[in-house]
Specification:
This protein is of the alpha+beta class and about 170 residues long. The chain has 2 domains: about 5-65, no CATH class; about 70-165, Arc Repressor Mutant, subunit A (Orthogonal Bundle), CATH 1.10.10. Helices cover about 45% and strands about 10% of the residues. It has helices at about 20-40, 60-65, 70-75, 80-95, 105-115, 120-130, 155-165, and strands spanning about 5, 15-20, 135-140, 145-150. Strands 1-2 form a two-stranded antiparallel ribbon. Strands 3-4 form a two-stranded antiparallel sheet. A hairpin with a 6-residue loop joins strand 1 and strand 2 (about 15-20). Helix 4 packs across helix 6 (about 120-130).
């Protein structure tokens, strides 16, 4: 008996066909690659009526895969605090674009492009988010010694919590 799994995700399409073990192995490999790529927290779980999407322990959800733009992602979270705007931008760059060193300039550009009112002082916000008090970001340096930031696990968990609250 042949087994087949087909996932469309708006024509991204993934199709695996073969015997049971082959299909199971290929899906597990795919899930590992997706989780490694996006490092999505397993706490983001999918609604029961949306289970036609790849899911294993809730690591990949239809909601996360459907954000086609930062503006959509931002709107889904709808941050109430100014610092959260910058944190959400860093999360987007790290998790959806694979960029590990995000500068204040990057944050300004993505917020402007999304039509989001800019926080009053993005550089200060990023420094504070990387401070010991919050530790949502980790400061890294790029060429020329300019500050850049990447998301910490604490920051990732915080943004995931914001996502769940606004689902």
């Amino acid at each position: 008996m042949g087994y087949r799994i087909k996932v469309n995700l708006k024509n991204g399409e993934i199709e695996v066909e073969g015997d049971k073990e082959f299909v199971k192995d290929e899906i597990e490999k795919l899930l590992e690659r997706i989780v490694a790529k996006f490092s999505l927290a397993s706490s983001l779980e999918m609604d029961k009526d949306k289970k036609d999407v790849l899911t294993q322990s809730g690591a990949v959800t239809e909601q996360n895969m459907l954000f086609e733009s930062f503006a959509e992602f931002y709107k889904a979270i709808d941050p109430k605090k100014e610092q959260d705007k910058s944190l959400i931008a860093v999360y987007w760059f790290n998790k959806f674009e694979g960029k590990d060193a995000v500068t204040p300039k990057d944050v300004v550009e993505i917020l402007k492009d999304a039509g989001v009112p800019l926080p009053s002082n993005i550089s200060r916000d990023l420094r504070e988010l990387a401070s010991g008090k919050k530790a949502y970001l980790i400061k890294v340096n790029v060429k020329g010694g300019r500050p850049a930031y990447k998301l910490s696990m604490t920051g990732e968990n915080y943004v995931n919590k914001l996502l769940r609250v606004n689902e």
